[in-house]
Amino acid sequence: MKPKKRKVIIYVGTGAKDRRFDTFKRRIIYIFSRLAQRGFITTKELAEKFEMTPRNALRDLYPLREEGILKENITRSGRWEFDTASNSFIKMVVTDNDSSTLTFLYNFAKVFGGDINEKVLSVLDKGFLREDREYPFFMITQKVKNPAAKMPCHQELYDAILKHHKINLTYRKATGQQATVKVSPFSMIMCDGLWYLGYLPDGKEKELRTVRSSHIISVEPLPDEVFERPEWAHKAMKEAKNIWFGPAKTKFRLKVQNTIKDYFEMSEFFPEQKIKDEGPEYFTIEARYSHYNEVVPNILRFLPAITVLEPAELKAEVAWRVNAYKP
User: 135 Cβ partners below 8 Å, 6+ apart?
Assistant: First the structure.
């Protein structure tokens, strides 16, 4: 009588630890494949599929619940579904194009520096593993020398803005002197690579001002004094092109050569910008400004292909700055 044949499996070059990790990966892949196929998975089927106890199966499912990815059906115990109320990155279907875009945002966050840089990078790090590879997007902008530098009093300002609490703001003036004023902090503003605090001076609620973050010395929260954010200030912020914004608006008109028309078709360089009177060589732009500095830098940027038509005061301001540059 011939001896009975036996099937022998030999593991080569892998330890028990490697095998356990490989099995764990297969279990996670199985969980998400079942969720993708029918929208749920049960503790029982996971346990049976991988020949383990229901208690061990829960060790895979509980961490996914804690991360906001899964939730247990309250009417059917042991049935697990996607937690649609959560915003977990892992539930997103991420294409190569999406990955490129997110990596671009990851790198662009370094421009903001400080706490914003830290939070954006940490959030994306949780959801995506970035490899050292080429991506199609590139941003040319100011290079921040120290992205890790913190904005002074960031947490105090953040809390006061969210809770609408007034503050006593101590800052350094351009002259080097210190000043303390009571203000209603409106927003933290990133402009031209610098952070500013936008605020409403106490007693002058029709006036929006800014102070450079590097000039802020200290912040004293005033939790007993609450302010309401006026609608005009919110609108002014949305329409702003730089930090020189406000409620009062002066209409102006520009004559522009068609050679740079695509700039203005693609982007708004001036508040409430509208293209008018389009001709074979020139077109006109109508817009509004609150302060000369809100529009003059971009007018100077496009010289000599742009000319101020009106008002006379704006035309004179541009001419004065051009003449002031002459040696």
Answer: 100, 103, 104
